[in-house]
Amino acid sequence: MNAPDLGKLGFGGAGIGNLYRALPDGEALATVLAAWDAGIRYFDTAPHYGLGLSEQRLGAVLRDKPREEFVISTKVGRLLEPNGPGGRDSEGFDVPATSRRVWDFSEAGIRRSIEESLERLGLSHVDIAYLHDPDVHDLQVGIEHGLPALEKLRSEGLVTAIGVGTNSAEAALECVEAADLDLLMLAGRYTLLEQPDVPLLDRCVERRTGVVNVGVFNSGLLARPDVPDDAHYNYDQAPPEVLERARALASVCRDFGVELPTAALQFPLRHPAVVNVTAGATSPEQVTTNAARMDEPLPDELWEALEGLRKGAGQ
């Protein structure tokens, strides 16, 4: 693994790209500053997040910090092309649709994507480049063209580390087998609620590919001590059986005086493949709460009880 040290907790930049709701500039910048003040030194973003807004806001804070003191990653695979005035973004971000996303896994497209990200960030370089959602576009094109292009950029020293960001454990495994990846950003597939039924994490250990685990709250299902009826899972209303499983986890945590989100945040780091948990935030309070949860000492007996619950449920 060629990746820099990321620390236990990273900052995910989708929220400051106006994911689901518009965030005032001041609140967004204060949230990034709160992450810095909490000791977080790994920051992740992407052109996809708010059609470049996340990169712009993140850069507005980080370009004034000592460059050697933080690690930043962005993603490639979607270029932003001018779209003209009018309309709102249709992919979950509350921003004007002045640009449109165009898939491009070619070497030229990936190089252009990095250059344009650097312009938005106002930085001289990014440390890590992830191929973004190859399973959503075309996994084989990503493997045959996108990953070799990233390996070439790394060999040239344009980025320190390369990886893939995906919601699919199956696609992630194919990419890990196909290329010399430093990192894998895995979203929502290795959590307290669910673990992949493919040998992904064990292969990451064998191939020395570090896992940056994101989406640990499963779209908010595990984000509160008590699981509400309207909780979301996989970006949709959680079905009754999933609500029941989450509430069983919360009950076990409660027996040990631990809140469900604290266990959810710390759980992935128990696997040797996982090198970092990155969590998004849209307020300074969310950042400081996440940092406090990550540092809270938890008893070994809690993990044993949660594992017993999982085995008892046949998961």
TrEMBL record:
The keyword Isomerase does not apply. InterPro entries: AKR (IPR020471), FDH-like (IPR044477), NAD(P)_OxRdtase_dom_sf (IPR036812), NADP_OxRdtase_dom (IPR023210). Residues 8-309 form the NADP-dependent oxidoreductase domain. Its EC number is 1.1.1.122. It comes from the Bacteria. One of its GO terms (molecular function) is D-threo-aldose 1-dehydrogenase activity. Keywords: Oxidoreductase. SUPFAM superfamilies: NAD(P)-linked oxidoreductase. Pfam families: Aldo_ket_red. This is D-threo-aldose 1-dehydrogenase. It comes from Paenarthrobacter nicotinovorans.
